[in-house]
């Protein structure tokens, strides 16, 4: 008889039996020995008494035939209720919710709806989102079925999100059904607070025991600007109602954006003086449609420095290993503050979160774009065993950490409001978020200006192309790998830059601006000494019209007339008048101007292309760009009676030939 036979008398018929023990400490007063038992026996759970340790050995099956054996010392306060249930029926954690980096995912966020009664600028695109048909969203019963499965596998906390979860009519009933799940310790909700005061008494009675309320400003007028709706007083009423009903702390989520509300950080800290709040300052994060820009982000350290100048006695509070927040407290204040540092200091190493979107997709990372549809498998009749396998495979593929903030801003992902449902992108090309604009990098010399734009290395690693402008040197173009410690590679000689912004055909820029003299005054360039040559230039622009205006343009129903024909004439006329519109441009005899406009149905857009030709001593880039600009502006003017939600974008030079600096072509 094997040494294990006296402990496992029912396993004698197993064909193979192997143990791999790992000692680990469970939270609180439990200590566990966890083992994986690989076998081909019955799939029923079995428990054995272990007299020597005065505890139990639990054998819990899984559909992959990996079994958990847990030796638990029985805690004194677990003789009844949920404590007894955990001891009798559950392992500390399921292998299916543990990823390849050993992270235990015991926290599930479920989106109840993609709809929202606000239009927060950092969350939802200004033009709104295309809603998923109701039939494709999870029903209440499907939500409970999936929640029950996750709780059975070890999830202890479920947070209901959206959209705005409190606009779902059956939200109270869903909370009540979740409360009945044995093993679930926390039921939370994240809300914008508009409906909270009205629903909270019923939600509390149903079992809701944690609340997060989104509030980005304490100024009513600014509130309406940020969320594009009224309702500040309702949110404040909801916060006070939550404290009255005994929710301590009430978490208040504040997304801090430069130029919007960074001046209110101290006011939010003061908000915690007399109320049991946890104000959580969240770094501005990139999602589709929110036009993320690095310059809008206020880092945690910058906020912390500002707060410490006012309250130097600010204390750091201890936190759990899986916490996403860095918590602080001003002594003698009732509440506290926290920082969510997703961008500047990620917390991927301790991430314990999974997400189910409103349309039933499982997301293992908030910033990842990989998803698996649990709804489709559930509706196709998949068994519990099959669902667990699917979940386990998705969790197993979770990466060690998400991309950096610059890479995230370029990745295709859902808008924040559609962490509820995939946006409809059929027939639509991916839009690249370009990070351009002048700024000073931390630690760089203030006299050296840096311009950063995205680039892609030939090695398929994402990087950044940096142009350094020093008064004593020429432009030096280098590509930096996003990884730490990589050596810069010279773009000009190595030809490593690719993508729409960087090409090996781009000649080295001049050291100086040509339209200013030595004293910095505007001047017109003397081209008299240059030889004549053939010059061409092609430029383009895109006008996003929206569905209604696009349809009217296509059907030639705009009251002002034929939009495309009028815009074409305007573009040609604009090219001929460039020297009158752009002060320092030469008056060039144009041999040919062509402006074409085409319709892009996938984007509901007008695509403009202009080309100019001459034989002379200076180029015609400005003529081509002016033609594209005037054509785009004319499209706007012709359609503005239909809608003002028209966007002109992608105005750029596509190619040029001739001149001392050579040819240019944007691939």
Automatic annotation (TrEMBL):
Key words of the record: 4Fe-4S, GTP-binding, Iron, Iron-sulfur, Lyase, Metal-binding, Molybdenum cofactor biosynthesis, Nucleotide-binding, S-adenosyl-L-methionine
Coiled coil: none
Domain of life: Eukaryota
SMART domains: Elp3
Any single Pfam family the record assigns to this protein: MoaC
Radical SAM core domain ranges (all copies): 100-313
Pathway: Cofactor biosynthesis; molybdopterin biosynthesis
Catalytic activity, as annotated: GTP + AH2 + S-adenosyl-L-methionine = (8S)-3',8-cyclo-7,8-dihydroguanosine 5'-triphosphate + 5'-deoxyadenosine + L-methionine + A + H(+); (8S)-3',8-cyclo-7,8-dihydroguanosine 5'-triphosphate = cyclic pyranopterin phosphate + diphosphate
MF-aspect GO terms: 4 iron, 4 sulfur cluster binding; cyclic pyranopterin monophosphate synthase activity; GTP 3',8'-cyclase activity; GTP binding; metal ion binding; S-adenosyl-L-methionine binding
UniProt entry tagged with the keyword Acetylation: no
Keyword Iron (UniProt): yes
Gene Ontology CC terms, in alphabetical order: cytosol; mitochondrial matrix
Single biological process term from Gene Ontology: Mo-molybdopterin cofactor biosynthetic process
Record InterPro entries: Aldolase_TIM, Elp3/MiaA/NifB-like_rSAM, MoaA, MoaA-like, MoaA_NifB_PqqE_Fe-S-bd_CS, MoaA_twitch, MoaC, MoaC_bact/euk
Names of required cofactors: [4Fe-4S] cluster
This enzyme's EC code(s): 4.1.99.22, 4.6.1.17
Function: Isoform MOCS1A and isoform MOCS1B probably form a complex that catalyzes the conversion of 5'-GTP to cyclic pyranopterin monophosphate (cPMP). MOCS1A catalyzes the cyclization of GTP to (8S)-3',8-cyclo-7,8-dihydroguanosine 5'-triphosphate and MOCS1B catalyzes the subsequent conversion of (8S)-3',8-cyclo-7,8-dihydroguanosine 5'-triphosphate to cPMP.
Subunit structure: Isoform MOCS1A and isoform MOCS1B probably form a heterooligomer.
Similarity annotation: In the N-terminal section; belongs to the radical SAM superfamily. MoaA family.
Name of the molecule in the record: Molybdenum cofactor biosynthesis protein 1
């Amino acid at each position: 008889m094997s040494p294990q036979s006296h402990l496992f008398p029912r396993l004698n018929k197993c064909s193979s039996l192997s143990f791999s023990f790992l000692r680990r400490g469970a939270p609180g007063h439990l200590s566990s020995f966890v083992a994986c038992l690989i076998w081909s026996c019955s799939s029923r759970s079995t428990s054995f008494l272990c007299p020597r340790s005065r505890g139990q050995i639990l054998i819990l099956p899984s559909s992959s035939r990996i079994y958990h054996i847990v030796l638990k010392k029985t805690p004194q306060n677990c003789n009844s209720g949920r404590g007894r249930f955990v001891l009798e029926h559950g392992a500390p954690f399921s292998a299916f919710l543990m990823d390849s980096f050993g992270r235990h995912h015991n926290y599930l966020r479920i989106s109840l709806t993609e709809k929202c009664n606000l239009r927060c600028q950092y969350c939802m695109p200004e033009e709104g989102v295309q809603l998923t048909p109701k039939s494709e969203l999870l029903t209440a019963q499907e939500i409970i079925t999936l929640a029950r499965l996750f709780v059975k596998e070890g999830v202890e906390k479920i947070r209901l999100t959206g959209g705005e979860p409190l606009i779902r009519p059956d939200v109270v009933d869903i909370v009540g059904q979740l409360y009945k799940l044995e093993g679930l310790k926390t039921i939370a909700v994240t809300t914008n607070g508009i409906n909270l005061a009205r629903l909270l008494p019923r939600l509390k009675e149903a079992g809701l025991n944690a609340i997060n309320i989104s509030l980005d400003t304490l100024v009513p007028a600014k509130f309406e600007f940020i969320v594009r709706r009224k309702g500040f007083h309702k949110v404040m009423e909801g916060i006070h109602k939550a404290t009255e009903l005994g929710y301590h702390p009430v978490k208040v989520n504040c997304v801090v954006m430069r130029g919007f509300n960074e001046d209110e950080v101290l006011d939010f800290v003061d908000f915690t003086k007399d109320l049991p709040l946890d104000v959580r300052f969240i770094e501005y994060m990139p999602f589709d449609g929110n036009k993320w820009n690095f310059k809008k982000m206020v880092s945690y350290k910058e906020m912390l420095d500002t707060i410490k100048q006012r309250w130097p006695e600010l204390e750091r509070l201890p936190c759990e290993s899986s916490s996403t927040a860095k918590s602080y407290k001003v002594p003698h204040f009732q509440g506290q503050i926290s920082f969510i540092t997703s961008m500047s200091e990620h917390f991927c190493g301790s991430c314990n979160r999974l997400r189910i979107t409103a349309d039933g997709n499982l997301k293992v990372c908030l910033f990842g774009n990989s998803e698996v549809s649990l709804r489709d498998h559930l509706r196709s009749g998949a068994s519990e065993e099959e669902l667990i396998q699917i979940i386990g495979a998705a969790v197993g593929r979770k990466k060690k950490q998400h991309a950096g903030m610059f890479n995230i801003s370029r990745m295709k992902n859902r808008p924040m409001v559609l962490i509820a449902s995939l946006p409809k992108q059929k027939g639509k090309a991916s839009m690249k978020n370009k990070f351009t604009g002048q700024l000073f990098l931390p630690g760089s010399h203030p006299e050296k200006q840096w311009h950063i734009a995205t680039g892609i290395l030939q090695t398929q690693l994402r990087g950044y192309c940096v142009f350094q402008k020093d008064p004593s040197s020429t432009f030096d173009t280098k590509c930096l790998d996003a990884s730490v410690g990589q050596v810069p590679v010279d773009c000009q000689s190595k030809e490593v830059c690719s993508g729409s912004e960087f090409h090996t055909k781009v000649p080295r820029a001049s050291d100086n601006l040509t339209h200013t003299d030595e004293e910095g005054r505007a001047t017109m360039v003397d081209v008299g000494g240059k030889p004549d040559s053939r010059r061409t230039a092609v430029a383009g622009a895109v006008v996003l019209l929206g569905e209604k205006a696009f349809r009217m343009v296509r059907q030639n129903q705009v009251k002002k007339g034929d939009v495309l024909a009028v815009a074409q004439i305007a573009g040609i006329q604009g090219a001929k008048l460039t020297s009158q519109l752009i002060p320092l441009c030469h008056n060039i005899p144009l041999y040919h101007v062509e402006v074409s406009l085409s319709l892009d149905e996938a984007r509901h857009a007008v695509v403009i292309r202009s080309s100019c030709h001459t034989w002379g001593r200076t180029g015609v880039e400005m003529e081509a760009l002016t033609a594209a600009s005037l054509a785009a502006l004319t499209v706007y003017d012709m359609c503005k009676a239909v809608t003002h939600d028209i966007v002109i974008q992608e105005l750029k030079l596509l190619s040029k030939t001739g001149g001392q600096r050579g040819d240019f072509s944007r691939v």
